[in-house]
């Protein structure tokens, strides 16, 4: 590569001459191979020769000039080809920025792809990271890892026959549980190495035996996992990450009713160090369950409620279907099983009946009274001040918008999917990571990837 006084540079890639400027390269990727070649050298008037594909390099050069990929790049080259070429030239960070989707807005999201493991394609559990939107899918006794670009990185075979819960506890390590085997197990997915296990045992209580994991949540101070014994005794354990030993037993109870069942969902609240647990029983007569909040430092319950309960005559028969926490706004959300109304409670002002109910007859949303959208709500997930709720096979988002008359923020409901999308099957789990939304459906292979649709640089998976 040579330059003249005007900083024009020439590069011979695979026999084809390209021209650009030193500032184009050095301002975008100053530490790359191309930046090193753009400095003055002793090559004279002969361009530096690089034995690479010139057509792929034209994509890289366009990326350096505009920060975006050409519109036709995804149809001409595979994602892996682009990744390999960017890695060679040292511009992978720029390619990553171009390939990642725009900020996730639920009302503007569309189905971008479905990630399906090569074997046992029906996911039993999955988890996504908020940072780079990478994805770990448990299927059977295996865990498949997909990186930020959703390229398959590795599949790890565990010693379990099925993995029904998974939580990222370190950058490359997962805590996993099984519905058919006792204990919480830790794996380093980068190497496929088994790290260790934690079991709930009590020599003085024979009922505490072969306890299986129902839910897992991570925190800086340790891992929380709910355990359920064959005799229905259950509790939440706080586990020291450095030793994998039990640090505390929280909320031990006998699961003889819906109000004392094992927590099926755990959520750590970093602002106040509290742990939220919930369980919902779904039967022919509707839903029933509880929400419970513990302070792990004292192991005490700081607030709890069960539904159906007293003092809620106007909501009787419309009990909670699922619960989640918006940690950014310190707000507890639930969806009602029959009406679909959204209940909100300020975690700083919890009392006997802290719920404020919001509903929205959005005239822009099509009818949801029949088909796959019937049958009540089953899943709710909070992410970046958006509340995503699944009802049957349909997916909705509640967003904060400015009220036209009140001037304050109100909650507005929109459908994320189209009517035909909802007919693929009942939604079993929703989780967001990075700027992607991940959805699984009962008995269906793969995990759906939803992204906001206003990206000109989106690459097909």
TrEMBL record:
Domain BTB: from-to ranges: 7-106
Pathway: Protein modification; protein ubiquitination
Protein name: (rape) hypothetical protein
Gene name in the database record: BnaCnng24220D
PANTHER family: BTB/POZ DOMAIN-CONTAINING ADAPTER FOR CUL3-MEDIATED RHOA DEGRADATION PROTEIN FAMILY MEMBER (PTHR11145), RE57120P (PTHR11145:SF8)
SUPFAM superfamilies, A to Z: POZ domain, YVTN repeat-like/Quinoprotein amine dehydrogenase
InterPro entries: BACURD1-3, Beta_prop_At2g24240, BTB/POZ_dom, Quino_amine_DH_bsu, SKP1/BTB/POZ_sf, T1-type_BTB
GO biological process: protein homooligomerization; protein ubiquitination
């Amino acid at each position: 590569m040579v330059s003249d006084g005007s900083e024009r540079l020439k590069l011979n890639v695979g026999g084809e001459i390209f021209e650009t400027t030193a500032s184009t390269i050095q301002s975008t990727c100053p530490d790359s191979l191309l930046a090193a070649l753009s400095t003055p050298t002793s090559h004279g008037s002969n361009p530096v020769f690089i034995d690479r594909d010139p057509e792929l390099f034209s994509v890289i050069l366009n990326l350096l000039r505009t920060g975006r990929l050409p519109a036709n790049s995804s149809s001409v080259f595979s994602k892996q080809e682009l990744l390999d070429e960017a890695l060679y030239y040292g511009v992978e960070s720029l390619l990553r920025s171009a390939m990642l989707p725009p900020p996730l807005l639920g009302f503007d999201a569309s189905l971008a792809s479905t990630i399906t493991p090569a074997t046992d394609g029906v996911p039993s559990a999955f988890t996504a990271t908020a940072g780079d939107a990478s994805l770990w899918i448990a299927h059977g006794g295996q865990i498949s890892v997909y990186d930020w670009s959703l390229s398959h990185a590795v599949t790890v075979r565990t010693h379990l026959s099925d993995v029904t819960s998974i939580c990222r506890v370190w950058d490359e390590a997962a805590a996993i549980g099984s519905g058919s085997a006792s204990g919480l197990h830790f794996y380093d997915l980068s190497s496929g190495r088994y790290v260790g296990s934690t079991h709930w045992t009590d020599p003085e209580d024979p009922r505490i035996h072969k306890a299986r994991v129902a839910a897992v949540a991570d925190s800086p101070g340790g891992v929380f996992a709910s355990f359920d014994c064959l005799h229905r005794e259950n509790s939440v354990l706080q586990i020291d990450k450095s030793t994998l030993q039990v640090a505390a037993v929280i909320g031990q109870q006998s699961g003889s009713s819906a109000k004392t069942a094992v927590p099926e969902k755990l959520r750590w609240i970093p602002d106040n160090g509290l742990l939220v647990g919930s369980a919902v029983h779904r039967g022919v007569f509707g839903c029933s369950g509880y929400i419970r909040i513990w302070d792990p430092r004292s192991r005490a319950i700081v607030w709890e409620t069960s539904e159906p309960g007293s003092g809620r005559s106007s909501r009787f028969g419309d009990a909670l279907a699922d619960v989640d926490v918006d940690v950014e706004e310190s707000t507890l959300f639930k969806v009602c099983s029959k009406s679909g109304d959204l209940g909100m409670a300020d975690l700083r002002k919890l009392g006997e009946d802290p719920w404020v109910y919001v509903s929205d007859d959005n005239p822009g949303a099509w009818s949801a009274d029949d088909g796959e959208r019937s049958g009540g709500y089953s899943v709710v997930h909070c992410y970046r001040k958006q509340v995503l709720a699944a009802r049957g096979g349909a997916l909705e988002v509640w967003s904060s918008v400015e009220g036209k008359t009140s001037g304050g923020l109100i909650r507005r409901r929109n459908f994320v999917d189209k009517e035909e999308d909802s007919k693929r099957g009942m939604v079993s789990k929703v989780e967001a990571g990075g700027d992607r939304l991940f959805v699984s459906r009962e008995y269906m292979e793969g995990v759906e990837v939803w992204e906001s649709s206003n990206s000109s640089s989106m690459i097909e998976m």
